[in-house]
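Researcher: Let's try something more involved. This one mixes different molecule types, so please make sure each is placed in the same coordinate frame as the others.
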Amino acid sequence: AQSVTQPDIHITVSEGASLELRCNYSYGATPYLFWYVQSPGQGLQLLLKYFSGDTLVQGIKGFEAEFKRSQSSFNLRKPSVHWSDAAEYFCAVTIQGAQKLVFGQGTRLTINP
Amino acid sequence: GAVVSQHPSRVICKSGTSVKIECRSLDFQATTMFWYRQFPKKSLMLMATSNEGSKATYEQGVEKDKFLINHASLTLSTLTVTSAHPEDSSFYICSARQGASTEAFFGQGTRLTVV
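Model: All components are placed in one shared frame. Result:
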């Protein structure tokens, strides 16, 4: 069955530290991959996406993600986090021709001052 | 980028009444719209997918008679929670997609509280 796993439910990092949020997927076909961020009580904002081509993609707010087919992963990274990055992060996957996105469980990011 | 506007952002209704949530695509034609429900500190659960002019396709376990979805135009879809009960209290989010595009854009969400 198609699935998306975000192994870390909650991560805490210090402001200025580097960040990596993990995402693994299980899909039979070539996936289209997304990372979204959600602030409390808000909708989802797209950070970045991967469809094809360069496996390292750059997004907004200084985020990047790398698609590793051999590991079925699409981890999100940021070299130096800011307090405003505290939010919930969702990885999502779909395939070409599919109607819907499948979301991971989400990772809540807390930033220590 | 494309903008999806969801209204209202918050609504409180009495148990047994119905409430309508609107989802509008402001600068593109949304041929497909999706409705999600999100429980506190949980991921998004897809409720239904609607294509403009067609009946919505509901996910397993979602009551179609309780959650009425209308997608009568290319810029508007509505979700009506009928005979709402406290257990329907949740955060509802819509998203919209144009044509064969794989990318969907999300509304701001609606916090429904049934008292």
